[in-house]
Amino acid sequence: MKVGIDVGGTFTDLYAFASDGRTATSKTPSTPPDFADGVMAALEAAEIDLREVETVVHGSTVVTNAVIERRFPKVAFLTTEGFRDLVQIGRYHRPSLYDPYGRKPPPLIPRRFLFEVPERVGARGEVVRPLDEPSMHRIAAALRDADVTSVGIGFINAYANPGHERSAGDLLAEGLPTVPVTLSSEVSPKVGALARFTTTMLSTVLRPVVGPYAGGLADRLRARGFDGALWFVASSGGMMAAAEIHRRPEHLFVSGPAGGVQGAIEIGGAIGADYLIALDMGGTSCDVTIVEGGRPFVASGYEIDFDLPLAIPTIDIRTIGAGGGSIASVDAGGVLQVGPRSAGAVPGPACYARGGSEPTVTDADLLLGYLDPRRFLGGRMVLDRPAAEAAIGGLAERLGLDPVETALGVVRVVNEHMAAAVREVSVDRGRDPRDYALLPFGGAGPVHALAIAEIIGIPKVVVPPLPDVLSAFGATALDVTHDAEGTLYAELATAEAAAIEDRFLELEAQARRALLDQGVDPADCSVRRVSELRYVGQTYEVPVDTPADLAAVGAVAVLQERFHGEHASRYGVADPESPVAIVNLRVTAVGATPKPPSARPAAGTAPGAPARRPVLFPGRSWRDVPIHQRRDLSVGASIDGPAVIEQPGSTVVVPDGWTVRVDGFANLIADRATR
Question: Where is the Acetophenone carboxylase-like C-terminal domain (predicted)?
Answer without folding.
Answer: 494-665
